[in-house]
Design brief:
3-stranded antiparallel β-sheet; alpha+beta; 38% strand; 5-stranded antiparallel β-sheet; 165 residues; 33% helix
Length: 165
């Protein structure tokens, strides 16, 4: 019995390493992991408002967990894969960072900053995903963006993951 357990231990470590390696530098796999983590928490919805930096924006929830200014999910993605991760909420025509591990040049979380109006913005505004090279707060990334849709199918936010180039 002990021998069997000792033989399966290296296999468990190998599978764990493969899981982490599979996410390393693969934005498609990593955003799938981020979206799956959020889905396990619950369905996305907007309810009330909250601060994001110096802006008052809609509060985005997954289930009963408010995501605004909550960094556990994005920090776990960074810990597991090394990727930057962000959750944006739709605010008017903008998508505003409400949870992120992306840092500004001053070393602060980029909460309250908006998604740049470029290819990713165009795609998610139409309810489509986007993967490709992007500039995030002045740094080049290989990234993916997915729209977050509410119960009625409307885009209410965006998830993002990226790996520094």
């Amino acid at each position: 019995m002990l021998q069997r357990a000792l033989l399966t231990l290296p296999l468990a470590f190998a599978l764990s390493a493969l899981s982490t390696t599979a996410l390393a530098n693969d934005p498609k796999a990593t955003i799938a992991e981020l979206d799956a983590r959020l889905a396990r928490i619950g369905a996305p919805k907007l309810e009330g408002t909250d601060k994001a930096g110096d802006k008052e924006v809609p509060a985005i929830y997954f289930g009963t967990r408010k995501i605004n200014n909550n960094y556990d999910v994005v920090d776990e993605i960074k810990k597991k894969s090394g990727a930057t991760a962000t959750i944006f909420v739709k605010h008017g025509d903008d998508f505003v960072r409400v949870s992120t591990n992306v840092l500004t040049p001053e070393g602060k979380r980029g909460v309250g900053t908006a998604l740049a109006r470029a290819k990713a913005y165009d795609a998610v505004s139409k309810g489509q995903s986007y993967c490709g090279d992007v500039d995030v707060l002045g740094t080049a990334f290989n990234a993916c963006y997915n729209p977050i849709k509410g119960a009625n199918g409307a885009v209410i936010g965006v998830t993002y993951v990226g790996f520094k180039k």
